[in-house]
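Researcher: Let's continue the batch. This sequence belongs to DUF86 domain-containing protein, and it's 119 residues. Same format as the previous ones, please.
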Amino acid sequence: MRDSGSKSRDIPLHLIGMATAIERIREVAGETNLAALRDDWRRLAILERQVEILSEASRRLNDDEKQLTFEIPWREIAAIGNILRHEYKRVDVVILWDVCTVHLEPLSVAVEKLMRMQR
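Model: Same format as before. Here are the structure tokens for DUF86 domain-containing protein:
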């Protein structure tokens, strides 16, 4: 039985996971800069994990969701997760920082759009 008072139950978990990861990335990235991040393995590990979560959750999007947000490079988002999981020694901090500071906003807008459509 569904709780009609809980709107979050109408939103698929992959979208909730993406929104949560985006907020965590914003929080951590907002507290540092690229130069400091290079020397802060803890923050770097947090950002890597949250981007990995975004990547994995993006794989759960169905074709309709992807078509509604065609401007987002979903294939590349999925691919960065593979790099973080399997080729972690070649993770470029500059690319990760770019993902977290430049590409996050369009992704956030797309996730919000998909979440609004679920309500």
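Researcher: Any comment?
Model: Residues 93-118 form the longest helix (26 residues).
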